[in-house]
Write a structure and sequence with these properties.
Cofactor: Fe(2+); Mn(2+)
Helix content: 25-40%
CATH class: Alpha Beta
Number of domains: 1
Shape: globular
Distance between the termini: 22 Å
Family: Belongs to the mannonate dehydratase family.
Bound molecules: manganese (II) ion
GO molecular function: mannonate dehydratase activity
Oligomer: single chain
EC number: 4.2.1.8
CATH superfamily: Divalent-metal-dependent TIM barrel enzymes
Number of strands: 12
Number of helices: 13
Protein name: Mannonate dehydratase
CATH topology: TIM Barrel
């Protein structure tokens, strides 16, 4: 398991590469050209400059999150072919600088959704929170809240230009059922996966967050059956999954250990984050440590270890600690993600020690219930 860190780029993140370098074990940066809108061309010189900036500090630049998929592709408009060509072209260019994995999602209109970005936790920190009852009837209210919460930063998936086109976007999705969205995803994959096979880049779809439909929009990557169907529909090792414990973990019906076990050979990237799910369906993001929330992260790490996982992982969202919410991106502070990276690597090292100790060391079962 190679530990990485999501970074939004120079001048677009309050955290610097020099700070990230001081977190032991973080060997790679998960990056993107965040100022690009979906469907825009990524120029070779821009890609090269960003990858070189990252590599010059000693990090790998092998994971990109995200290359956003244009809505015309998700809706299935005739213009999608042009956007798919641009996407394929970006895949080729990214392969040229050593990118191995592209994390992306196929959620209509909105990316991840929360109702409060700074929900106070009992320990005095705060974190992203989702309250089922307060999901606004009008998605515009939610978009405004999230854009406001981003402060000086643009929240990916919630760019202000999308807000201005919200009515238009909802109208365009009016006839897009789950089946049609699935077909449109398969159409997209049938075009880009051959390119991935040719240049050695793995696509890793991120599950929907939260793991259910919102605002009447279809969502299709939210449970074990849906993931199985999708992976079988385009059966290439270059078409795989970003296993995100925090997204899939929002739904109590999702058996996370079973999902990791079943798809282990198609998991190309892992987001590890804990959520505390309440009886009424609300959830809040909490510390990575076992017992803090509803997800048993050591158990998931153990299953990855058992399956010989050699891919990339990152601590996903964290709490905002020690007042950092005043300066950081919502969910992307420095401290709790650094704790998360160290905790997860600690679990991994413990498992490695047990393996090296041989059968007698087998008694050390981190994460065993
Ligand atoms: Mn995630």
């Amino acid at each position: 398991m190679k530990m990485t860190w999501r970074w939004y780029g120079e001048g677009n993140d309050n955290i610097t590469l020099d700070q990230i370098r001081q977190i032991p074990g973080v060997s790679g940066i998960v990056w993107s050209l965040h100022r690009k809108t979906a469907g825009e061309v990524w120029e070779e010189h821009e890609i090269l400059a960003e990858a070189n900036r990252i590599k010059s500090k000693g990090f790998s630049a092998a994971v990109v999150e995200s290359v956003n998929v244009h809505d015309d592709i998700k809706i299935g408009l005739p213009s999608r072919d042009r956007y798919i060509d641009i996407y394929a072209d970006t895949i080729r260019k990214l392969a040229g600088v050593g990118v191995e994995v592209i994390c992306y999602n196929f959620m209509p209109v909105f990316d991840w959704t929360r109702t409060d970005l700074y929900y106070p936790l009992p320990d005095g920190s705060n974190a992203l929170f989702y309250e089922k009852a307060s999901i606004a009837a009008d998605p515009r209210e939610m978009a405004e809240m999230i854009i406001r919460g981003g402060g000086t930063f643009t929240v990916p998936g919630w760019e202000p230009d999308r807000l201005s086109r919200l009515d238009e976007l909802f109208a365009a999705y009016a006839d897009v059922t789950e089946e049609r969205l699935f077909d449109n995803l398969v159409y997209f994959l049938n075009r880009v996966i051959p390119v991935c096979e040719e240049c050695g880049v793995k696509m890793a779809i991120h599950p929907d967050d939260p793991a259910w439909p919102i605002f009447g929009l279809p969502r299709i990557v939210r449970n074990q059956d849906g993931i199985r169907r999708l992976l079988q529909a385009v059966n290439s090792p270059y078409h795989g999954l970003t296993f995100c414990s925090g997204s899939l973990g929002t739904h109590p019906g999702n058996d996370l250990p079973a999902i990791v076990r079943e798809f282990s050979d198609r998991i190309h990237f892992v987001h590890l984050r804990n959520v505390k799910v309440f009886q009424n369906g609300d959830f809040v993001e909490v510390a990575h440590k076992r017992g803090e929330g509803s997800v048993n992260l050591p158990e998931l790490v153990r299953i990855l270890h058992e399956n010989g996982y050699e891919g990339y992982a990152r601590p996903d969202h964290g709490r905002h600690l020690w007042g950092e919410e005043a300066v950081c991106r919502p969910g992307y502070g420095l401290y709790d993600r650094a704790f998360g990276a160290m905790y997860l690597l600690g679990v991994w090292d413990g498992l490695e020690e047990a393996r090296l100790a041989g059968p007698r060391g087998g008694e050390v079962r981190v994460g065993a219930e």
